[in-house]
Design a protein that fits this description.
By secondary structure, the protein is α/β, with parallel strands linked by helices. The chain has a single domain, classed as Response regulator (Rossmann fold). The chain has six helices and four strands. Strands 2-1-3-4 form a four-stranded parallel sheet. Strand 1, helix 1 and strand 2 form a beta-alpha-beta unit. The chain is globular and about 40 Å long. Bound molecules: 4-nitrophenyl phosphate (4NP). The site of 4-nitrophenyl phosphate has 10 residues, from loops.
Length: 167
């Protein structure tokens, strides 16, 4: 829990921080807004690879997200060691992201903050992760949004049910 703001701080992480994790951020921000939780939960995203740092999300991701009403304005950034201190929960989009995050964690306490997004996918039993759409066509981007809309609902329920705000 962030002592300064007392908000629960959630970080989504993928590889480039231009497709999946900024989309997850946009999807979760809308849910938080709809449930009037903006004063209790904050959301950010980052990538394990910094090659796109400073860029807006990939145009294809922005176009597909916009069709569902999400404006993605995040600027890509690489995850830092401080993120493991500052955030309460760090959500990796696929097994590779989770592996990289576990490699970066400086202590068991930091490693305990890492969870795979696949854990929260409910409606798509054939998916245990959010697949990288970068080299895919339109279907890949639509699939990412379908999985994220599903998983973000379950993730938010998990955060609320586990009553993290009182810890
Ligand atoms: P993301 O997608 O991890 O969902 O942002 C990718 C973005 C860029 C690259 C790979 C995946 N890339 O190789 O540059």
């Amino acid at each position: 829990m962030d002592k300064k703001s007392d908000k629960y701080k959630l970080l989504f992480v993928c590889l480039g921080n231009i497709c999946r994790s900024p989309a997850a951020e946009g999807v979760m921000l809308r849910l938080i807004d709809e449930r009037n939780l903006a004063d209790r939960i904050s959301v950010d995203s980052a990538g394990t690879y910094g090659g796109h740092a400073g860029s807006l999300p990939d145009n294809r991701m922005r176009i597909h997200a916009r069709r569902r009403g999400y404006e993605l304005t995040h600027r890509s950034r690489r995850i830092t060691g401080d993120d493991f201190v500052n955030f309460d929960l760090i959500v990796g989009m696929d097994a590779g992201n989770v592996y990289s995050l576990r490699e970066m964690a400086a202590s068991p306490e930091e490693a305990r903050k890492i969870v795979p997004m696949g854990q929260f996918i409910r409606q798509f039993p054939h998916y245990d992760h959010v697949p990288d759409p970068y080299y895919e066509g339109s279907e890949g981007f639509e699939l990412v949004l379908d999985l994220l809309e599903d998983a973000c609902e379950a993730l938010l329920d998990y955060i609320l049910k586990n009553d993290f705000f009182t810890k």
